[in-house]
Amino acid sequence: MDHINGDLRARREATVWQRLNRILLILLVIAIWLVIVSLFVPPYKKLMQSRAEIDNLQQQVNEQQNLLARQTREVNLLKTDVTYLETIARDRLDLMKEGETIFRLEPGRTKPKPGDSARR
Question: Which domain holds residue 31?
């Protein structure tokens, strides 16, 4: 009878150790996975920041290209289109043709709001 109880006790201890070994193995795999993930998170964040910066810079490049295209078009018009040159000169330099009268309209003034005088 003692022999049977000893066998049962040995089997129980063996299954307990097997379970502990499995748990330890699972914890070890989880720890290794966490280390690997922690090694890749900072470079991934930096990559995302770099992509956002690239998108921002690309937008600035596109805006500058549009501005350059507009200015190039205006320079070409000023060099080649006499009517456009005349219009710009008359508008910006207040030039006029002989016998012509220029009327300038000022932008409408907004009426003060009822509470504005109390604030001043």
Answer: 2-96
CA 39 → CA 28, 29, 46, distances in Å?
Answer: 17, 15, 12
CB 75 within 8 A of CB 68: no
Strands (DSSP E) contained in the chain are none
Domain count along the chain: 1
* Distance in angstroms (rounded) separating the CA atoms of residues 24 and 77: 79
pTM of the model: 0.47
Report pLDDT digits (tens) over 68-103.
Answer: 999 999 999 999 999 988 888 888 887 777 887 777
**Does residue 104 fall inside a structural domain?**
no
106 assigned to some structural domain: no
Domain contains 117:
no
Structure tokens at 91: 């508008």
Q: Is residue 74 part of a domain?
A: yes
Structure tokens of 103?
Answer: 């009327």
